[in-house]
């Protein structure tokens, strides 16, 4: 199986350690590609809107986004990690997610996303870990991913792994190992179930695309929906 990890920080701190605990079980038989932010997506979206209106290949950061996108497309399991920075995911994570705005359902979602599974790991000193996870989940769900597990921790103590109380380390390791075991047992040859909410979002956007297509059949997003067959009978969660 293939795993892609998007690390919201380059620091080999606690977030890194937690991610390593989660991955341990997969290491012997999975192919794992990791991206570290901001190194692997170092620039901000400048809002030129070329990706939305014309073509994603016109993005000034395409070389970075293309690599990440193809890893996301190929992976069976997507893992996102972030410490909480001022109650949210890191700015580096947000900057990367902004570049994928054109992959939100109202634009041009990747059909593969509808069958994927994802895990989000966040942690914080006192508060903000859950909202950091929510930031990431928001994008993933609008990309079409229905199966998203989140694991969020509050340290309430030191911020260095080696100085954490053994009980705290044990608690976090237990929770992550439990989730890792659950994710390990999945048969990744079978697509994840697409939820009712994801389907509803799809059908609402489909109505919007139909109406946009009537006004302008050359509209970029409409042409994408049409070419995927989504304006007709094809659905991204069904096997062709
Ligand atoms: C810029 C910045 C903002 C932070 N904001 C929060 C916050 O809102 N809530 C919180 O509990 N901890 C906050 N922290 C603390 C980190 O979430 C915490 O130290 C975390 O363990 C760091 O993870 P790391 O070792 O993977 O870098 C912040 C740290 C930084 C550097």
Number of strands: 5
Major β-sheet strand ordering = 2-1-3-4-5
How far is it from the N-terminal to the C-terminal residue, by CA?
A: 21 Å
- Please tally the helical runs, counting DSSP H or I stretches of 4 or more residues: 8
* CATH topology label: Rossmann fold
State the shape. globular
CATH architecture type? 3-Layer(aba) Sandwich
The largest pleated sheet is described as: 5 strands, parallel
Contiguous uncertain segments of 5+ residues = none
Can you describe what's shown?
With 240 residues, this protein is of the alpha/beta class. It has a single domain, classed as Rossmann fold (3-Layer(aba) Sandwich), CATH 3.40.50.360. Helices cover 41% and strands 15% of the residues. The chain is built from eight helices and five strands. It has a five-stranded parallel β-sheet, with helices on both faces. The two termini are 21 Å apart. Bound molecules: flavin mononucleotide (FMN). Flavin mononucleotide binds next to helix 1 and strand 4.
Note the topology.
Elements: E1 2-7, H1 14-23, E2 31-36, H2 50-53, H3 62-74, E3 77-83, H4 91-99, E4 117-124, H5 129-143, E5 147-154, H6 166-184, H7 196-215, H8 220-227
The protein binds flavin mononucleotide.
Flavin mononucleotide (FMN) binds next to helix 1 and strand 4.
Relevant terms:
8 helices; globular; Rossmann fold; single chain; 5 strands; binds flavin mononucleotide; 240 residues
